[in-house]
Amino acid sequence: MNTIIPEITEKPDMNTTEKVSAKKSVVRVLCAALLCVGMSACDRKEGPAEQVGEKLDKAATDIGNAVEDKCEEAKESAGASDTRC
Questions:
Q1: What is the rounded CA–CA span in Å between residue 61 and residue 33?
Q2: Which of 9, 37, 69, 80 has the fewest CB atoms below 10 angstroms from its CB?
Q3: CB contact set of 1 (below 8 Å; sequence gap of 6+)
């Protein structure tokens, strides 16, 4: 019989444990494949909350950088040997 999917035939010397183990292996592989397909189909569009969060993160980083710059400027103008903040 010519088919695209080959038939799975059992070896005559397979015991019940081997049969169950083989079936579990096939199920595990199929579950892993379905999980991969499902995860790749997830939509990564950002919602409004994520956009606001990113803007807040950027603003906090910008403020931190500005404070560090002013601190370094103040130390330089005071003549400090270590101008790192």
A1: 40
A2: 9
A3: 7
Q: Report the predicted TM-score, pTM, of the whole model to 2 decimal places.
A: 0.45
Q: Is 42 left (phi over 0), alpha (psi -120 to 50) or beta?
A: beta
Closest to 68 measured CA to CA, from 51, 45, 49, 85? 85
Q: How many CB atoms lie within 10 A of CB 22?
A: 14
3-state secondary structure the chain: CCCCCCCCCCCCCCCHHHHHHHHHHHHHHHHHHHHHHHHHCCCCCCCHHHHHHHHHHHHHHHHHHHHHHHHHHHHHHHCCCCCCC
Residue with tokens 């079936």: 23
Amino acid at 82: D
The Cα-based distances of 15 to 8, 10, 21, 23 in angstroms read 16, 10, 10, 13
